[in-house]
Design goal:
6-stranded antiparallel sheet, elongated, 44% helix
Length: 719
């Protein structure tokens, strides 16, 4: 091709264009079309070398054919990009106009290379023309002759005519190549999705992703790494080919190496020359003996968050295809979903195993039934406690195993179908051999694999029942066996007081201490008995009409010694027009004593205490306010429970029954009790008590022989 061909006549030119068009359209493979276009054009205008560069819609080079002499050359995408940005081909693409360069050494549009030096190939002549089709720029053809001035206007016209013919062929071939590429990508992704979603085992999913990546991208090796819990290290979990098992378990800090860079930035990347890239981590190659030449790496995302990376290493054909990152990103998207599903499955299995462990290892019998009560599953404790075999229990109903409290569950368990609340009641389990076991039943609706069931927990309360009986016996003993001695002591103190001289203050003080101590013991025993009675549901029968003020006076008198000892002030504010109470006088007096006693106990010396009353929603509300240390919010809801001792007050003494008695006594009268407290400020305990009915007040007034002095609002200052 070193001899310039003579220009043809118009007839010969038409014939040439026809032959060129037929040759172009005889193939659809883009590389083949480019080579044919370039070869025919060079042959017909006498070019020594030439190139065709195909660009996409954005003007980015995507394919090329380069002939120098008789050799077909390859260039990287980066080299092609330089040519299209700086050289003659770039000028033609930007201006979409053909160009004739008679002497490349004198034309600034020509990109001078070391090969163009005078002592080497020297100046040349060149022609470049755009390839266009359907008003769309598809590429550029450039032809070079080693002799300056060899190309003229007629050559340029012929090249333009050939370029016009070639443009359509190149566009068709590019579209065909794009279609094939998309088909290949979709096939690769479809096959990958099918393979990696065929299992939920996490390790197997990871290995399959690596295998599919290696196959889809035709590379020597593929590796997958996931971030650790702290998201500061990558851990290689799966490797296919290459270093293989040597790399599994290797840790790489985020930001270290190409993989670490991708994990940090979230950007996919292709590194064509790994060892010349500053991001490359060569230590891995030195340790494993594997040589990395090129890397494609992309992040694996899960709900927009980076969880790992996927690498393809060393393409088998020496270079990565143009669609490599598209395929790799597609696999990463599939991988993120597959890994998420596998991790959720692992978590579900772990949760299921924890449930099974809790179910089987529970110290209480657990029974699972359908919504009609047929037993479906039982734990080991249910078999052991009932004495029935699992097979026997599976043929039974929950009604056969214990007495169902239909007031709680409904006759047909319908209440359990209507609520997710836990229903609690006490019953008896029917064990093997006509043995009955007292149980506390906790029943609730649960969902198992999306199907509603009922879970029954049957707690053996035999020991608690035994303790309850002992407690009842002890309460009875305390009440009956202490009652007579206490009465004798009180009577003896009264006799002793009548025999004492009235002017001996020391003896008087001792007797008062003895009287108050015996009264305190008597209040404690009465409260203990009342707690037992009220808990068992016995009603309050001995209610009478009584004014609030006299009860408050008696309560103050009971705590007077403690109040005086701590030099505290007590303010009482009771409106004069409050109606009478309809209560058990002794019980409510003890409630007030307990509230005042607690206020005195927890208020510092010389502190302030206030008792106030008012009408509220048809009842009388009584509040005792102290300036003590206050009660933490977390403890406020527990203080009315039996035997509760506040953790925030480790030095406090007592059985923890005082506020329990207050709650039961107030609730037994139809009222309620509550507390409002701030740590470091103080507490406000409030109760509501019933007002006497009008007819009872009228009858009470008629029985009185005289009108008592109306109770005024009073203020007591105790020091």
């Amino acid at each position: 091709m070193s001899t310039t061909q003579p220009l043809r006549s118009p007839q010969e030119t038409l014939k040439l264009l026809y032959e060129v068009s037929r040759e172009f359209n005889s193939a659809l493979d883009l590389r083949t079309v480019l080579q044919r276009v370039l070869f025919l054009t060079m042959r017909n205008i006498g070019a020594h070398s030439g190139s065709i560069i195909v660009v996409d819609e954005r003007g980015e080079p995507i394919e090329s054919a380069i002939i120098h002499g008789s050799n077909m050359l390859d260039q990287t995408t980066q080299q092609l990009r330089i040519t299209t940005e700086q050289g003659l081909a770039g000028w033609v693409l930007r201006n979409q106009t053909a160009a004739l360069v008679k002497d490349t050494s004198k034309d600034p549009r020509w990109l001078q290379r070391p090969d163009d030096a005078i002592d080497r190939t020297g100046p040349k002549s060149a022609i470049s023309a755009p390839l266009a089709a359907r008003e769309q720029l598809v590429g550029v053809i450039t032809l070079v002759n080693s002799t300056p001035g060899k190309f003229g206007r007629q050559h340029l016209s012929l090249v333009q005519a050939i370029a016009d013919q070639a443009g359509v062929a190149v566009l068709n071939a590019r579209l065909y190549a794009e279609s094939k590429r998309q088909t290949r990508v979709m096939s690769a992704l479809a096959e990958t999705a099918s393979v990696i979603n065929a299992t939920l085992n996490l390790e197997e999913v990871l290995q399959r992703i690596a295998v599919q990546t290696r196959q889809a991208l035709n590379v020597q090796a593929a590796s997958l790494a996931l971030l650790n819990d702290d998201a500061d290290e990558l851990i290689f979990r799966a490797v296919e080919g290459g270093a293989g098992a040597q790399l599994v378990g290797t840790r790489l800090k985020v930001g270290e190496g190409v993989a670490g860079w991708v994990a940090k930035t979230g950007q996919p990347v292709i590194v064509h020359h790994a060892h010349s890239d500053p991001r490359f981590h060569a230590e891995t190659d030195r340790r494993t003996g594997f040589y990395t030449s090129a890397i494609a790496c992309a992040p694996i995302l899960q709900e927009g968050k980076i969880i790992g990376i996927l690498e393809a290493i060393n393409p088998q054909h020496g270079h990565f295809e143009r669609d490599t990152l598209m395929v790799l990103n597609g696999i990463c998207n599939l991988a993120g979903t597959a890994i998420s599903h596998a991790q959720l499955f692992v978590q579900l299995q772990a949760a299921h195993q924890r449930y099974r462990d809790l179910f089987e290892d529970s110290l209480s019998p657990i029974v699972i039934t359908d919504m009609e009560g047929r037993i479906l599953e039982v734990n080991r404790q249910a078999i052991e406690t009932s004495g029935f075999s699992q097979e026997a229990l599976s043929r039974m109903s929950i009604m056969d195993l214990h007495e169902v409290d239909k007031k709680h569950t409904g006759a047909y368990l319908e209440r359990l179908t209507q609520t997710d609340q836990i229903l609690i009641y006490e019953s008896e389990m029917h064990a093997l051999g006509d043995v009955t076991i007292p149980v506390q039943v906790l029943a609730r609706r649960v969902s198992i694999e999306g199907v509603p069931h009922i879970q029954w927990i049957l707690r053996d309360i035999t020991e608690r029942k035994h303790i309850d009986r002992l407690r009842n016996d002890l309460i009875s003993m305390i009440y009956h066996d202490l009652r007579s001695p206490l009465s004798n002591i009180i009577s003896s103190l009264e006799v002793l007081r009548s025999m004492l001289p009235g002017d001996d203050d020391a003896i008087e003080s001792v007797v008062q201490i003895a009287e108050r101590s015996t009264e305190r013991i008597q209040r404690l025993t009465n409260s203990l008995l009342d707690v037992h009675r009220l808990e068992s549901g016995q009603p309050i029968l001995s209610q009478e009409i009584v004014g609030l003020a006299p009860l408050v006076d008696e309560a103050i008198e009971a705590v007077r010694l403690s109040l005086d000892a701590k030099q505290q002030s007590l303010e009482v504010a009771i409106p004069s027009d409050l109606p009478g109470l309809y209560v058990d006088k002794d019980m409510i007096r003890r409630v007030l004593i307990n509230l005042l006693d607690n206020a005195v106990k927890y208020t510092a010396s010389q502190g302030r205490i206030r008792l106030e009353a008012r009408m509220a929603d048809g009842m009388i509300e009584v509040s005792v306010i102290d300036t003590g240390p206050g009660i933490p919010l977390a403890e406020q809801e527990h203080i009315f429970h039996k035997f509760t001792r506040l953790r925030s007050r480790p030095g406090s003494k007592g059985l923890g029954l005082g506020l329990t008695f207050c709650r039961l006594a107030v609730e037994g009268h139809g009222g309620r009790i509550w507390v409002k407290s701030r740590v470091g400020v103080g507490s406000r305990f409030s109760i509501t008590l019933p007002v006497a009915p009008l007819e009872s007040l009228l009858a009470h007034s008629a029985r009185k022989t005289s009108t008592p002095e109306q109770q005024k609002g009073k203020k007591y200052e105790q020091h």
